[in-house]
Design goal:
By secondary structure, the chain is an alpha+beta fold. The protein is about 30% helix and about 25% strand. It folds into 2 domains: about 150 residues, Alpha-D-Glucose-1,6-Bisphosphate, Chain A, domain 4 (2-Layer Sandwich), CATH 3.30.530; about 120 residues, TATA-Binding Protein (2-Layer Sandwich), CATH 3.30.310.170.
């Protein structure tokens, strides 16, 4: 009986060693330190030209982690919801737009179908620029609701008494988040048949309320047809580049936004809020968010994390500065550990995670 028990214990300890519970396992050591001999072709055979399709690139250690050992815990859970719905109407100052969590190639055909079903005549459709312009449409005057109703459902008996006509310019652009789309509308109106006034688009609508009504109608129409199955424009697929770009350099990873400062500042603030990163303070004039961040403190811990991580670890956050600055006409977003002491390897890893988190939650 004792012999059987001893054998069981030895087998258990051996399995623990292979799993790395009693130190590095043989498999782990082999992956870290082991090498394999290169394949040699016999001298009597012709050696073909060798092209390595999976060459290992030279690693540029921007974060200075070479030679450091970092203990990695369980991976963070994959984010399945970024805190926003699939379609939202956003507003910043006087600017309004529709955010759609779908790529441009999917949204573009539905926007065209909207104008086709509403029987709005089009004068220009430029896929490469993501722009749709309508012809002048006869409509009533007054409240935005009444005007839009007259444009979409004109009463044949009353069109002769309408004294105004309207035109719309719609822009379909790639959004800040990868795979998303933003819709912008600009409106012009004039007295009926007043050809002295052309639709010169300068970014500001004559009737902001009518612009807002058109945006709402587009958002509602696209939302209704999401379940109808995929409809993709290959021509519009070329316009799917995001408005945020990740740039890696000697000082680490930063984000470059193709937006103005006001929009970028608001985007970063909303991203930190949606990602549940604690904002301790902020200074808009200096373009700085003071945040407290750790991958444990700012993530929703699952069952295994609650077992293997103490309450103190889950609540502890590290201070970071998230800066929004203009450099050579570009808006750059950076994150850096705050404090007088030089950052350690863990701080540098958290910095990279924070940058990635901001990009994922930007809308």
């Amino acid at each position: 009986m004792r012999k059987a028990t001893l054998i069981s214990v030895l087998l258990f300890l051996n399995s623990c060693g292979s799993l790395g519970w009693l130190g590095k396992s043989d498999e782990q050591k082999k992956l870290e330190e082991g090498t394999s001999k290169p394949t040699k072709i016999p001298s009597e055979l012709d050696a073909p030209f060798f092209n390595d399709p999976m060459a290992i690139p030279e690693i540029q250690d921007f974060r200075g982690l070479s030679g450091s050992e970092i203990e990695l815990g369980l991976p963070d859970p994959l984010a399945t919801n970024f805190g926003v719905e699939q379609i939202l109407i956003r507003r910043l100052g006087d600017n309004r737009w529709v955010f759609i969590d779908l790529p441009v190639a999917t949204v573009w055909p539905r926007v065209l179908l909207f104008f086709e079903e509403k029987k709005f005549p089009l004068t220009s459709v430029e896929v490469s620029e993501g722009r749709i312009e309508t012809d002048w449409i006869i409509g009533s005057s007054g409240e935005a609701e009444d005007v839009f109703e007259s444009l979409t459902n004109p009463n044949k008996g009353e069109t002769q008494v309408y004294l105004r006509e309207y035109s719309f310019n719609v822009r379909v652009e790639a959004g800040v988040r990868s795979g998303s789309t933003e819709l912008y509308v600009e409106e012009r109106n004039r007295l009926r048949n007043d050809e002295s006034l052309s639709a010169a688009w300068d970014g500001a609508s004559d009737e902001p309320e009518l612009e807002s009504k058109m945006l709402s109608a587009l958002a509602y129409y696209i939302g209704e047809r999401l379940a109808e199955g995929p409809s993709i424009s290959l021509a519009a697929a070329t316009r799917q580049a995001s408005k945020v770009e990740t740039i890696s350099g000697e000082n680490g990873t930063v984000l470059k936004y193709r937006l103005d400062f006001d929009r970028t500042w608001a985007t970063i603030g909303r991203a930190l809020e949606d990602a549940e990163v604690e904002v301790v303070d902020l200074d808009r004039s200096a373009g700085v968010y003071f945040v407290s961040y750790s991958s444990l403190a700012n993530s929703k811990a699952g069952f295994l994390k609650r077992i293997f991580n103490s309450e103190d670890e889950k609540k502890e956050g590290r201070p970071f500065l998230v800066t929004v600055s203009s450099q050579s006409g570009q808006i750059i977003v950076n994150a850096a550990p705050s404090g007088e002491s030089s950052p350690g390897p863990e701080d540098l890893v958290l910095r990279e995670r924070l940058i990635k988190l901001i990009k994922e939650y930007s809308t």
